[in-house]
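Quick one:
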Amino acid sequence: MTIDMSMWTGRIDAAEGDAARRWHQVVQPLAAGAAPGIAILGFACDEGVRRNQGRTGAVAGPQALRRALANLAYHPTLPLYDAGTISCDDGDLDAAHQRLAARVSAIVYAGHLPLVLGGGHETAFGHWLGLADAHQDKRIGIVNFDAHFDLRTADEATSGTPFAQIAAECAKRGQHFRYLCLGVAETANTRALFDAAANLGAEWRLDSDMTAWQLADARHQLAEFIDSVDAVYLTIDLDVLPAAQMPAVSAPAGYGVDISVVEALVGKIAKSGKLVGADLVEFNPNFDQDSHGAKAAARLAWSITRQLRR
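Output:
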């Protein structure tokens, strides 16, 4: 796979030495035999968003997020690699999912943790397939920061179906579906979706129950979920954030969960030692305002890598 490193450019503070490096100065193209680290993989696809009648444009998300990450200050962490980008140019989402799964699985087998930059939330199904194939001996719990359950029933895969697809695949494999959705908006999910979540044994927390003064309760719920599984797949749909913090998504949130709360909970997952893969999805640069959304998304990606314990 050809890896385009052209997005990794930015400021250089040469007079201050290695302690003044930024991400663009330390990210390397992923190569065979590289020391275990964090592999940044793009999924340039919003076919699922289109099918779900959303605002398209997230196909440009991976490159826009790389640009936002490039100039962030680097603090010592695991090695950082760019693992390239999987695309869905022909509209064949099923085939794109299989390519994403194969790449994620290869990354894991090589000893790295995949950090996938979407793309729409259809990213989640391919990402999970790759993690499940590489961790067949582990109970993988999904923690989804999202205003939506994404448990829709449809004739074809969309950005609204990934966790229903995962649940069906778990049933096929004889595995238990473990799913925690944090930041659910009652205004954006029908009673049918709440019923579907309950029938699948999913857990959730409403956006209205995730204010800063309720953080301790949210931490407790998250800790119990992490303790119940062997590994955690973290997926962050950026529409969980308030529209003022994240305008650049298909469905901006009228209420949302403050980024400080999301970051605190993401940090708990990163420090748990159980994180096996993470992604940020639904970033749509067509609707960004003065790079507000890109900066917020980059902050969350930076926070995951900064606090990761393996």
